[in-house]
Amino acid sequence: QVQLVESGGGLVQPGGSLRLSCAFSGRAFNIYSVGWYRQAPGKQRELVARISSGGTTNYVDSVKGRFTISRDNAKSMAYLQMNSLKPEDTAVYYCNTHFNNARSGMEYDYWGQGTQVTVSS
After folding, report:
1. What is the pLDDT of residues 93-117, one digit of tens each?
2. What is the sign of the dihedral through the CA atoms of 64, 3, 6 and 30?
């Protein structure tokens, strides 16, 4: 059984920073890719950043240069460092882990409960 718990959200002024954390409970964290998604009211959920099991990162254009995704496999943790925050970044942020078993064809996809990030003066 896999469980994800996000933390680190809160209220911050424009230009400020937050660091989100994702704690993974379960086995074999190292084989999963980790994604951070966000969803604002009335908007679709979007992928913000992803890091593969091998450490390759991808970002949505709107956060490139401002956000950094990272992982610490020894601690079964993933992070999203958010700098130069803008009001448009306001959303609930979700941690996701994904694994595709090529041999069996099965996919494993898990989600946290989300943490609120509000950027406002």
Report:
1. 999 999 999 999 999 999 999 999 9
2. negative
